[in-house]
Amino acid sequence: MAITATENDGVSLTTDKISYDLVETDIEIITSGRRRIPAHSGVLAAASPVLANIIEKPRKSHGGSSKRVIKIVGVPCDAVSVFIRFLYSPSLTEKEMESYGIHLLALSHVYMVTHLKQRCTKGVGERVTVENVVDVLQLARLCDAPGLCLKCMRLIHSKFKTVEQTEGWKFLQENDPFLELDILQFIDDAESRKKRRRRHRREQNLYMQLSEAMECIEHICTEGCTLVGPSSNLDNNMLKPGPCSAFSTCYGLQLLIRHFAVCKKRVVGKGCIRCKRMIQLLRLHSSICDQSESCRVPLCRQFKQRGEKDKKMVEDTKWNVLVRRVASAKAMSSLSQSKKKKSEVLLKEEAEDFIRIRKTKFF
């Protein structure tokens, strides 16, 4: 990038490799330390719309000098020098970002230099620490940098006990109670979201377990497993099948079924927690089952008929929600299993093709 003279504003950006020193500067930047930085109005106006508006204003005389003067104060002189140089050539070193990143973020926001603001937001975010996070958060809010604000909020949330001990937090409590309230509200919302996610995961695990239990009940009553099976298998003197893939769940259900068949408390009408649990599982299966006429699970058809007559059972909102979610979990489980089986078949076919190709090459 280079600068050449024009009739309008004295300079313009071109692709010719001409040194800036060949074009006379027509503007001076004055910093807090009274340092004067010569610059070209065309370059500043092209890089910053705010500087362009300042330059377009009527020129005022400053001590007999014919050059325009723009004051950039409130930040270190070296930070202003880096800022002006960036307007000429958009590059920053790690050392400059480390030393002046916060100041450059403020300057880029004030003078609307978007690409510099993006780089400073990222650079300052990478260097934020527990000690300066409160200061960076305040600056990010002033500079309208939501991504940096969110990063600071998350750091405060994760290290809140340590942040509370910093001078920045103590100053915040004394001078900006509204920001303190926003931070505490963010932490409270984050904790609430975390609790909801944990509860949702627990519920999903429960639905998946119930879905697996429904599949095991069908498997036990249709095919049989190690301890329990359909009566037709026993009549034909067939061998008991071995453990299934979900044996841990299946074995517990088999024990529950055997207890349900011989429980004396259930027979005499006394309450039995295990029998009630078994009845609830059978009722849940009946609510999900869409083949009650041919289903071999005990009491499936009876629960279907009873549910059609009993309006309270139909109108039980919690029960209906449970049925829908278990059915959804069962559908998702069967879908994932079918995908897994398809991938296993494809891998097996690819392995067989590879072996066949190898054999044809060597023989």
TrEMBL record:
Name of a matching Pfam family: BTB
InterPro entries xrefs: BT1/2/3/4/5, BTB/POZ_dom, SKP1/BTB/POZ_sf, TAZ_dom_sf, Znf_TAZ
Chain segments annotated as coiled-coil in the UniProt record: none
CDD domains: BACK
Highest taxon, organism lineage: Eukaryota
Keyword Membrane: no
GO terms for cellular component: cytoplasm; nucleus
Annotated compartments: Cytoplasm; Nucleus
GO biological process: embryo sac development; pollen development; protein ubiquitination; regulation of DNA-templated transcription; response to auxin; response to hydrogen peroxide; response to salicylic acid
Classification via Gene3D superfamilies: 1.25.40.420, Potassium Channel Kv1.1, Chain A, TAZ domain
Keyword vocabulary terms for this entry: Cytoplasm, Metal-binding, Nucleus, Ubl conjugation pathway, Zinc, Zinc-finger
GO terms, molecular function: calmodulin binding; zinc ion binding
Chief location: cytoplasm
Domain BTB: 25-96
PROSITE patterns linked to this entry: BTB (PS50097)
Pathway: Protein modification; protein ubiquitination
PANTHER family reported in the protein's UniProt record: BTB/POZ AND TAZ DOMAIN-CONTAINING PROTEIN 3-RELATED, BTB_POZ AND TAZ DOMAIN-CONTAINING PROTEIN 1
Protein name: BTB domain-containing protein
